[in-house]
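_Full entry_
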Amino acid sequence: MTRTIHHQWDANAARYAGALYLAIAVCGGFSIGYVPMQIVGSDGATSLANLAANEGLFLLGVFADCAVILFELAITAVLYQLFRSISPLMSTIALISRAGMIVVMGLNLLIWVLPYASMQSASGPNVSPEMVQLSFRAHDLGVFVWQLFFGVHLLALGWLTVRSSIVPTILGRGLFIGAFGYLIQGVVELMFIDLPIINALVILLLIIVTVSEISFGLWLLIRGARKPSATALSCA
């Protein structure tokens, strides 16, 4: 059976969400993907030397991390506003799980800057390379922790987009299926499991979810800003 309803779809909110999605992708790709590759070495001494030699890049990465956290706060509220009329329960799950992710991201940023803070203190020249490497390793693991929260968020968001009949179904399914990439990777990395077949599956799922997230952000920015009329929602 189908029934026609009017979702409380805010076209301006959709545009904001799309812009925030793309801003997070750019800033997060730089701070999480690029900067650690230039700083973290195979051992503490190398990492410490890289940190000292790339101080400006490191601080720029910290700035980008701060921007991501602020953007995440905004988009969490905006997505809740967009989808709460579809399912208050699932929208709340999406809200809480993404908020939990933001908390972990904030704590992870604190861990990331500890080595630099130690270098700036009076005992800077005596910073322990082992401590530096431990902090960076803890930061790496922290990423996998917040991925667990984000995976749950994407499951809820994917379900909401499919149910909405506003967002293209293929994007919702991509978010839902790809969410397992974050969930599986988070679990196996935190349990120190290394199996080629699982790694290959994770890569495939992460490709799906990355393409889906970027497409979702672009759709919200370009097409989602056009306020839809009544939509048909399938229901049992």
User: Anything to note?
Assistant: The chain has a mean pLDDT of 90. The helical segments are 11-39, 44-53, 55-83, 88-120, 129-164, 169-190, 196-222. The radius of gyration is 20 Å.
